[in-house]
Amino acid sequence: MAGFRSLARQVRDPLSDMALRRYSLRKCLERFAPYGHRATWDHLCSRVGIDPEDRSPDPARLVAALDELEEARAVWLAYEAQFAERRKREKHDGLRSPGSIDDWHRLTWGGCGVAWCDNPGVHPHEPLAEVLRRLIAGLEREPGDCCPVCDGTQLVWKFGLAHEPSSGPVCTSCGIVVPRPVLTRSALAEARRARLLVSA
Ligand SMILES: [Zn+2]
């Protein structure tokens, strides 16, 4: 199975045909897609002005989409490396690791679905790297009451997500599933209550 970097080289290969280069970018999304494959593709296409169904997109736009994805991937991998290093140190010092953030990391290692958008058409509009920086800042500070990406406070618990965990608090402003470790207990309880109001 080709890795992200060799796929990225294929996306940039001017001698390849455009359908193959586009296909290679989509394969990159199987390795790294913060919103999930479909929502991240939708995001990149809208950012660079490609029709998601266009089999032969403008090469400069396709490469711009890859650039954005690569920048975001670098941000995320740097965070993961730092996280792993910290955990190793804590283990060495005999500190018990807090459960919820580790559990969350196990499900998102490598950066797939870290800001899962269950509806592929609803996701943040900022550059992916910026969204991930905000998410990481949220993971690194004390839990709060709002979405770390858009500061939205309308969170509604949703079930049957096409992702693990299959339920969680969804930000109704930007569309991401907010990682549970960034929210306080009361914000999580509030999201569950909002769910009951919606379904009542
Ligand atoms: Zn949000």
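^ zinc ion complex. The pocket of zinc ion is lined by residues 147, 149-150, 152, 171, 173-174, 176 (CB under 6 Å). DSSP finds seven helices and two strands in the chain.
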